[in-house]
Amino acid sequence: MQEGTVKFFNEAKGFGFIQPNDSNDDVFVHQTGLIDKIRENDKVKFTMERGQKGMNAVNVELLIN
């Protein structure tokens, strides 16, 4: 699993982007790939999956400190 920070998430539209800790390239996330509810600036862990338009974050969970 990878870790990162939620850069943007629009709850009304159900999608957003995560900034992985090990990359400068944002990863798309859709509400169908969420395990926990997320908000901007949340620390999360996730797996990557190839979608129709590139890589997507799936199995997204909040990191508990």
Automatic annotation (TrEMBL):
Organism this protein belongs to: Flagellimonas taeanensis
Lineage: Bacteria, Pseudomonadati, Bacteroidota, Flavobacteriia, Flavobacteriales
Gene3D superfamilies: Nucleic acid-binding proteins
Residue ranges of every copy of the CSD domain listed in the record: 1-62
Broad class of the protein's primary localization: cytoplasm
Compartments where located: Cytoplasm
Protein name in UniProt: Cold-shock DNA-binding protein family
InterPro entries named in the record: Cold_shock_CspA (IPR012156), Cold_shock_domain (IPR050181), CSD (IPR011129), CSD_CS (IPR019844), CSP_DNA-bd (IPR002059), NA-bd_OB-fold (IPR012340)
Record has Membrane as a keyword: no
Signal peptide: none
Cytoplasm as UniProt keyword: yes
GO molecular function list: DNA binding
GO cellular component assignments: cytosol
Keywords on record: Cytoplasm, DNA-binding
PROSITE patterns (UniProt xref): CSD_1, CSD_2
Pfam families: CSD (PF00313)
Domain of life: Bacteria
